[in-house]
Amino acid sequence: MSEAERELEGGLVPFVPSALVEAVAADWVLEFSCSCLCRHFLEECGAEFKRWRDVAQAVSNGFSNVTTHQKKMVYLCQLLIRIAEGKRLECHFENDTRISPLESALSFWSLLEREESKLNTLHEEIRRLIQIQVVAVYMEKGYYKEAAKVLERLFTDSESHKPLRMKLAAIVKSKDPYVPLLQSFSYNLLLSKVKSYVELFLKENGTNFLLQAATKQVESKGGEERVLQNKAFNVEEEKENHLEAKQRLTEELQSTRDRLTGDTTSIIRPCSKKGCRTSNIQTLKVLKNVEERGNDSSCGRRRQPWTHEEDKKLKSGVREFGVGNWTKILIHGDFNNRTSVMLKDRWRTLCKLK
Fold this sequence. Notes:
Elements: H1 3-9, H2 18-43, H3 46-61, H4 68-84, H5 101-115, H6 121-141, H7 144-154, H8 162-174, H9 180-184, H10 187-205, H11 209-220, H12 222-262, H13 264-268, H14 273-293, H15 296-302, H16 308-321, H17 326-332, H18 340-353
Helix pairs in contact: 2-3, 2-4, 2-10, 3-4, 4-5, 5-6, 6-7, 6-10, 7-8, 12-14, 12-18, 16-17, 17-18
C-alpha cells in the first residue's frame, strides 16, 4: 500500500469525485477559451480566432448541463462564431439549411439578452443591426426571394418592429442592395457594435483562474525570458544585417556588371579610357559606401513612423509565424515599404513598451 493510499484510509486526505474535479476544470477552460475568443475577435486575428473557436466549441459541447454562470459565455461564443461567418451563406449552423449564420446569431443574441439584468441602447442597436444585415446579405448576393422569406421569419408578429419591417420589405421589393438604409446600418457597423459589447463583457468577466495563474507564471519567468529573447534578437539581428549587406552588395555588383556588358556602345562611345577608368573608380566607391553604410533609401524608410494598423499586423504575424520569422511575416503582411530588420526592431520596441 502506498503512502497516498494509507493517507486516504486514515482520513487525512478527503476523497474528491473525479467528475467534480473535471467539472471545475472544464469551467476554467470555458472561461479561458471564451476570453481568448473575445480578444481575437476584437483584434481581428483570423487564425487565432478559428483556433479558439474550435476549443470553445469542443468545451461547450462537453457540458451535459450548462449552469447559469456558464450560459452567458456559451451564448457569447456561439454568437461571435456566427457573426464571424455572417456573410458566408453556404455556412450552416442549424439543421435547417435555410437558416443563415446571421439568422442563427440572432437566436443566440436573444438568449444573451435574457441573461442580462438590464437591457440598454446597445442591446437594441445590435438586435436591429443583425436583423437588417440578415436581409442585406441575401440582397448583396442577389437572393431576393430568400430575402423576402427570411423577412417573414424575422417578424412573425405583425406589430413587432413594424416600421423596420415595412422599410425592409420595401427594400427587398426594390431589389436594390445599395439603398441608404442598408449602407447606414452596414455589416461593419454591426461588427463595431458587437465589439463594444465584447469589450464590456471582458471588462466585467475578463479575469479567470487560468488567466490569473498564467499571468503569474509569465511574470515570475519574465526576467529570464526577456534575457533569452534579447539574446535571440541579437543573433537574428547579426544574421539579417549580414544577409542584407551581402544582398545589397550583390545587387550593386550585378547592376554594374549589367551596365558594362549590356549595351557596350552606350558605355564605351561617350568616354575616353581615362573617363571610363574614373567611372569605374566611382562605381567601386559607391559599392564601398553601400557595404559600410547600407542602403540610404532603406534608412529613409526606417524613419517613417509606424501606424497602429502596421503594429496590429506585426503582432498578428508574430502570433502566426513566431518571433524571428520576420521574412515570413513581411511576405504575408501588408507593410508600408518595410524590411524584415525594421519589423524586428519594431517588435523589440513594442516589447519594451509592454
